[in-house]
Write a structure and sequence with these properties.
heterodimer, A: about 325 residues, mainly alpha, 13 helices, B: 3-stranded antiparallel β-sheet, two-stranded antiparallel ribbon, 1 helix, 5 strands, about 20% strand, elongated
């Protein structure tokens, strides 16, 4: 990839700046923090990156619930590493959002106040340890489908954060799948537990890709800007095609009677998604919405004394 | 359905109206400066910018950088520097400062044609 053109406008001429921005996107170059960018591009990115960051942070909770009940030291160490990674992913992403002029503490406040969102998937409860495995396999698998194309997102800091995230997601998915393989080789009760978790997480995992393309008004602009590289339905189909053979190896049944291989396209057809459920969960009426936010609020407020003490210490040693 | 969208790598998120709003507490974390983090991946390589974080002081910034950016042996050395202390080439990155090097092709070895029978050049 060659360097961007050198004859760049130096005036504040909006048209010239817009033209340069458009040319940079069209050439597949990255937009960097101090480049001129349209307000809509900046706002869309801040919203998307913040929502992504919030999802990582809230995403620590469903699995974190099992840290003290992990069945072995090995599983506990693995789960602890995974949950810590989610925190790290949130940090990479807040860091990227800050390059756009957002304030990190402010973004957290917006999450807690309900002015910014996180992924609907984390509003479901983790009822058994099999859920830890299924989250790694399906939820992180879906996240990988979403995230790999974002490594080529047009905004440099976001793309670079996603590369770091994707490197670590693979561990998340594999530890989940291995956990499930272990349980499937166990007792009938363990196998039933895995199937039950798959039954509960399959459809919410498909909903992670968002509304159908026919009902996704912002997608076209995001794709034109190179923020997003593939449509919701395209990514969802890709996920289904990847996952069905994995389910077969695992020996579980995906809870969709309409699931079948289309011999012409080589892709899997699947049944209708309950969009009303997605609407319900993201409008705050999922099983765990209130609990997730309450815990994030408590983490901020109850730990405020630590940050205050650290600040006081730093000030004392400055003077 | 238009009040939700698939944004963020973790999937569908709502964009519509929201949960009740409460006054936010004044947090001293807001006063923590932004640090840019540079990591040397291994001996023989330069430190490379990897991201940023907030910390109350330099020492805490190094510790936080270790936890955020080197959980898997990604580094053998970390630099942190307050973002405010960095001086950059210009306020933006479309910079005429670098234009002078654009037309000096004679600074590159490929500018010079050497007969093929000249060895080791």
């Amino acid at each position: 990839m060659s360097a961007p053109p050198l004859d760049r406008p130096t005036s504040s001429d909006e048209h010239a700046l817009q033209a340069l921005f458009d040319a940079t996107i069209a050439a597949g170059h990255r937009i960097e923090p101090r480049d001129w960018m349209p307000d809509g591009y900046r706002k869309t990115l801040v919203r998307q990156i913040a929502q992504h960051a919030h999802s990582e942070i809230i995403g620590m909770q469903p699995e974190g619930d099992w840290l003290l009940a992990a069945p072995s030291l090995r599983r506990k160490a693995i789960l602890l590493a995974k949950v810590q990674d989610e925190a790290g992913h949130g940090m990479y992403l807040y860091s990227a959002a800050e390059t756009l002029g957002a304030d990190r503490a402010d973004l957290t406040d917006k999450l807690i106040e309900g002015r910014q969102k996180y992924s609907s998937i984390f509003n479901y409860p983790t009822l058994t340890y099999a859920d830890v495995g299924v989250i790694g396999w399906l939820v992180d698998g879906a996240a990988i489908c979403n995230q790999v194309p974002l490594c080529r997102s047009s905004y440099g800091p976001y793309a670079r954060a996603m590369i770091r995230v994707c490197k670590e997601e693979s561990f998340h998915q594999r530890q989940g799948y291995e956990l499930l393989l272990t349980m499937m080789a166990g007792t009938d009760a363990q196998r039933a537990m895995v199937q039950d978790a798959v039954d509960r997480w399959w459809w919410p995992s498909l909903m992670m890709f968002g509304p159908p393309d026919t009902d996704s008004p912002n997608s076209a602009q995001s794709m034109a800007w190179g923020i997003k590289r593939h449509s919701n339905d395209e990514l969802r189909q890709r996920f289904v095609d990847m996952t069905v053979p994995q389910a077969e190896v695992l020996g579980v049944t995906l809870p969709d009677p309409d699931l079948s291989l289309d011999p012409e396209t080589g892709r899997y057809r699947f049944g209708p998604i309950d969009w009303d459920e997605l609407k319900r969960v993201i409008s705050g009426r999922g099983p765990c919405n209130a609990e997730r936010i309450a815990r994030r609020r408590a983490a901020r407020d109850d730990n405020a004394w630590v940050t205050e003490a650290a600040t006081a210490y730093a000030r004392k040693h400055q003077s | 359905m238009s009040e939700l969208t698939a944004e963020g790598g973790h999937g569908a998120v709502p964009t519509g109206p929201e949960v009740p709003v409460e006054a936010k507490p004044a947090l001293s974390r807001r006063d923590w400066p932004l640090y840019e983090v540079f990591v040397r991946g291994k001996r023989g390589l330069n430190h490379v910018h990897v991201g940023s974080l907030h910390a109350p002081d330099d020492e805490m910034a190094v510790h936080a950088a270790r936890d955020v950016y080197t959980r898997r042996n990604e580094g053998v050395s970390i630099w942190v520097v307050k973002a405010a202390d960095i001086t950059a080439s210009s306020p933006d990155e479309k910079d005429p400062m670098f234009a002078p090097s654009g037309d000096k092709v004679y600074r590159h070895p490929t500018f010079y044609e050497i007969p093929e029978n000249v060895p080791h050049m």
